[in-house]
Design goal:
The complex is a heterodimer. Chain A is α+β, with helices and mostly antiparallel strands. Chain A is built from five helices and 16 strands. Classes of the chains: A alpha+beta, B alpha+beta.
Chain lengths: ~240, ~240
Amino acid sequence: MKNEINEAHEAANEKVSGSNLEERKIVIPGEVITSGDDFLPGEWTFREDDNIIANRYGLAEQVGRVIKIIPLSGAFTPRRNNVVLGRVTDITHNGWLIDIDYANKGFLPVAESPRYINKHEMDQYLAIGDLVSGKIWSISGRGIDLSFKGKGLGKLEEGFAFRITPSRVPRIIGREGSMINLIKEKTGCNISVGQNGWIWVKGENIDSEIRARKSIEFIADKVYIGGLTEKMEEWFEKN
Amino acid sequence: MVKRISGRKADELREMTAKVGVIPNADGSAIFSFGETIAIAAVYGPRQLHPQHMQDPSSGILRVNYDLLSFSVSDRKRPGPSRRSREISKVTEMALKPVVDISEFPNTVVDVQIYIIQADAGTRTAGINAASMALAHAGIPMKGLISSFAIGKIDKDLIVDVDKYEEDYKEGEGATDFPIAKISGTENYTLLQLDGKMQPELVKKSLDMADKACEEIYEIQKSALKEIINGDGEK
């Protein structure tokens, strides 16, 4: 249990600070996580009188004096600097609209393209239906701005994309990318994972691509079990 | 002491089962049953709301759809929306709204689909219980869970969690069905409907009985949500 929680914690891409981390537990909305003035309510929690109360379902964690909740399930919640995969759904006069599996669409400004683009020929670079990988640059009330500045970002050509539950993405990536590197190494595929649950795979042949997809779906199914990397290595021996 | 055909005590609920994560393609889902009554709830969103004129720029909206499936009752129910299902959708929405906090998601909708796959009275309350768990499972910010059940009457005696036979019990003072929904851990009620006749003091007594019953339901909901991380994961 301890191990699982540790992994789920790392999975959330949070830096482990040297603080008291032993109090992680699953909480449900309305549950009192802790009480007393020693703590501060963090993400997805609020204070009522003396108590700190969970505002959503997830894993409660203490970092320093702050209590926060790491989501365990549900739809994708965008954050700054998340890498997301999505499809172009519309072209406007100054950019592209990208469906990133969230209530608001992502907006990719025309300035993000690496070369000059004639406004009348924007579909020469990205056409409707194209798959792209972008980083969330900013989130405002009006929408989500995407950027292509970064390694491996841009239009994704060939290969194929599929979707897993967004809360399981951290497990696919693993500790500092250990899991995804293992899969890349064993299958020889180029893989791009978006925080919104979309995964793009491109290999030398269709068989290796299918193998990569099956291995990813294998860990997505087993998401709460500890010692995943060993399990994955076992899986590759067999398949 | 009242005699119930099922052999239950007056304040005894039917056997309950609950599970979350039953629909892989939904953002959150749950199944809840009171004896023979089984409800499945699926939550989608927050997602873009269409038609656009229904959008609320100050907050997200909650949209509930209740459906009693045609095979859930012994005489096949004509499928599709009805006056009854629209009413129950509306009261369920009003029962859930006070705890759901979606003000952070303007112009969006959170869709809740409730399907009753087997009906033996108390379908709206089973639906509310399932929906409340499914909303939590979908990671929607909430102030608490909703626990719901119905109180009935056999002649003059109050009974908790009526089944179909008790709901239709016409002798004495007549059939009574009093569905109650309560925010867990508080004294706030989000659903009070009454079908039949009840004396004012009995209403007060009913609400006292609700405290204990809702606590039991809440424990079931809570353990179902906490269970998910143990064992072999969701599968």
